[in-house]
Amino acid sequence: MKHAAGTDDGAWIVGRDRELTLLTALVKGLSSAEPATDLPGTGVLVVTGGPGSGKSVLLDEACRTARAIGVRVLRCTGCEVESGLPFAGLHQLLRPVLDLAQELPARQRTALLGVFGLAEDAEPDSAQNPLLTSLGALTLLSDLAARGPVLLVVDDAHWLDVGTLDTLAFVARRLEGEPVAMLVAARDQSVPAQFAREFPLLSVDPLDAASAGRLLDLQPEAPAGRARSRILDEAAGVPLALVELARAVARDPRAARDSLPLTDRLEAIFAQDLPALPPATRQLLLLAAAAETAELPLILSAAAPDTTPADWHPAERAGLIRIDDGRLRFRHPLIRSAVYQSATYAQRHAAHLSLAEVFTGDPDRRAWHRAAAVEGVDEGVAEELEAGAGRAQRRGGYASAATALERAAQLSPDPADRARRLVRAATMAMYAGHPRWVAEITGRVTALTEDPAVLAEASLRAGWALAVTTQFEGSLGYLLPLADAATEENPVLALDALATATTPAYNSGESAHREKIVRIAERVPVQEDDSDRLWILAGTDPLRHRTQALALLHADRDRTDRDGTGRDCPSADEESGPVRDRPLSQLITWGAAAWVLDETGEAVRLLGAALEHLRRSPTAGANATVAQALALAQYESGAWTAARTSLDEAYRTAAEGGLENVVAGSPILGATLLALRGDADAARTAVRRAVHGVDLPTCRSLQVRAHYALGAAAQAEGDHATAYDRFRAVFTQDGEPLHFHASDYHLADLAAVAVRTGRAEEARAVLDAAGRRHAEGEVSPRLAALVDRAHALLAEPDDAERHFQRSLARPTGDRWPFERARTLLDYAEWLRRRRRATEARPLLSAALEVFENLGTRPWTERTLAELRAAGVHATATPGQETDLSELTPQQLQIARLAAAGLTNREIGERIFLSPRTVGFHLYRIFPKLGVTARAQLRDVLPDALREVPEA
């Protein structure tokens, strides 16, 4: 076993065999035909550990290994001061290869260079699209990788700006098929959220006792005796502490008597070298620590006039810094911290002012250095930061804009200005897709102002943030009082707040919240645009409010689907101009209401148009909730392949934006599809992962869907007892629905397994309770058909037929093909048992066609068995969905776009992949579909998937 490895600068790597093996495998996998199989994921590894654990040393070794085998290395290091500068880390990473940006597609080139202020063809005030920026970075790296493998090394990621982190995470999720690997290092307690959950982690733990002793023995003046024991105790296996404490004891043996806390001790050690340095060198180090830039000319220009490059030499000889190719690097971040913290306030103030003078041509950096020199408040600097936030916003750097506005608020002498800037910061954080940040910012506003407009906007932002992180009670605590107070003076605001509140109220399922929303809404006068009221009515009680909500939905649709002369516009079934020209908020509101009201086809049309709109917007991260709602509607309408694609997009976008409700909800629906297609084990695993850490009783909509997915998995395996327990759990012990809307759609599922487990009486009690509730409102044709099926299954044998016939006689029943096919199967089974096989056969054939097309193996097998029992020799014939079942949602999306004639580059722009990755996926798609050429794709795709919406 290797105990220690030497590095180029004389350092030793001890006790890191496992870490070095993984890193070496990752790097060497880039230049081999077969990537390393020991590493999970797609070439991304997040290295975590405490300060001084040796993360940077391991990354250095990975870089040396890469360069030795001809792998191109691009590297960036996070800087605390630059964490507020939009895309500063990304610029550092890509700067050596930015010349390749000229080869990018025009929109990507403009977006990528625009965030660096380098786009010559960008409009001065044009808003950048963060997704296009990320796609530009991905395409640039893919083009670079076409010339040879690339290793991306990101150190101190916890100090990178949010825009860089979002872009790097976007790239990391799309490296499959690219000869590109990414190493990301961050402190274990500060791993950026973008890399904390999805990627494999390599924890760099403290060294064991033997390795720690070995590292001490390798030092030039190895400590002995009591000093050695003291160092081993206080260093606690941290390599940097071991090395630095050994150096301290070598300089002064009395240092071993001290017992300072570890961090203080390390910083004291680093600062201990400073007094011996010449004043000019100390000034340069302070400027470098304050500037956090590696460019020597900038640091020198901020120094005293008589400073020369030779003044760096004492710091280099002391081992504090390294200078290569005109760029400076501190040996460890704690050295930078020690240099900065050991300076007096007056020295730090002077350093920042000097740097502000140097950055006269860079107003953003100048503003940040002026801000660092302020003690107290300064409206002038606050205005500069606010102006910088505006520039960041126009470049698509919403997170950087939020950071600048937060600091501007701190510097604002007027509490009203402070509150206004905080609310604007919250808005930018919302656009950046960081709900927890929004909640933290808005929490500070109420103590600063009594301005009702500012407080109202803060409450709206806070309510949104808590709603998408499943903190529904907190969300409604902001939104409902706001709406209640605004009903008369600002009815538009009241409806906006109530519509926002309806979503968490729907998801929580709590009746008290929904009733309060309705009571407040009744006091709000009718508005010219009353679309918010439509969602309020549908989302709070689709049973009691169905008639009124449908009237609003149809009135809005009829008004929008006619032109100014009153003539009919193109069919509502088409992706026509009237639909696509509607405001985005209306598309989402009407689409969500249509889904809840079981106007499923309308929901697919409206939500699909909304999703296309969002894909073109600079804040496209908001499409997660829309994509999930669309997936639910597609699933119910029988478009399961399209639903899988929408689910994939919803999850990826939600994971990037932190929308916890979708991060859990999308995999649950995916698990349902797995269960219905017979993959019960995968379904259970998906549910378990999805609900981990989610308080399901506070989110009953998810709880019901999770129960159903697990029940469907049990049903697929013939475990009817477990299925019954799961389906029964979507109702309370008293037979009331666990969720006011979602539960009743599983009445027929409950009835089906109840008769197989001898628990029909209990299921009848639940069904009777549902009947009493339904009598208080109007049920949809879909729900009515399901209730009829449940009655048929639980009825006495001679009374079942009329219920089956009534269920199948519903004129719109074929809009929900899977549900109708199960009713056909149940009725056919009833007929065959009564020796009416001739009547059963056509029903079984119709059900079989649906089940085969959807790829539902358990239901297909059951139907085939019934057909054989009815005297028909039947075998399975793969349907359209079965042919495509081996494709991932992303591969299916690529196949559709390629079949429509789009090039790899055009496909990449549409779904945010590099052209090379698109080609990699097509290489895998062809054999799965049994084709050998791109032109054949159109022939193997079903009609419903051949056409794709315009970009």
Our estimate of the beta-strand percent is: under 5%
What is the makeup of the main sheet? 5 strands, parallel
Quick check: average pLDDT?
Answer: 85
Low-confidence stretches: 33-41, 258-263, 562-577
Oligomer: single chain
Structural class: mainly alpha
Helix content: 55-70%
Radius of gyration: 32 Å
Say how many strands there are: 9
Largest sheet: spatial strand order: 4-5-6-3-7
Number of helices: 49
Distance between the termini: 57 Å
Broad shape: globular
Fold blueprint:
Blueprint: E1 4-6, E2 12-14, H1 17-29, E3 44-49, H2 55-68, E4 72-77, H3 88-94, H4 106-115, H5 130-145, E5 150-155, H6 162-172, E6 180-187, H7 193-196, E7 201-203, H8 209-217, H9 225-235, H10 239-251, H11 262-272, H12 279-291, H13 296-302, H14 313-317, E8 321-324, E9 327-330, H15 333-342, H16 345-358, H17 363-372, H18 379-394, H19 398-411, H20 415-432, H21 435-442, H22 452-468, H23 472-486, H24 491-508, H25 511-522, H26 531-540, H27 546-560, H28 577-580, H29 584-596, H30 600-615, H31 623-636, H32 640-657, H33 660-676, H34 680-691, H35 700-716, H36 720-728, H37 747-754, H38 760-774, H39 781-794, H40 800-809, H41 817-833, H42 837-854, H43 857-869, H44 880-884, H45 889-899, H46 904-911, H47 915-929, H48 937-940, H49 943-946
Parallel strand pairs: 3-6, 3-7, 4-5, 5-6
Antiparallel strand pairs: 1-2, 8-9
Helix pairs in contact: 1-2, 4-5, 5-6, 9-10, 10-11, 11-15, 12-13, 12-15, 12-16, 13-16, 16-17, 17-18, 18-19, 19-20, 20-21, 20-22, 21-22, 22-23, 22-24, 23-24, 23-25, 24-25, 24-26, 25-26, 26-27, 26-29, 29-30, 29-31, 30-31, 31-32, 31-33, 32-33, 32-45, 33-34, 33-35, 34-35, 35-36, 36-37, 37-38, 37-39, ...
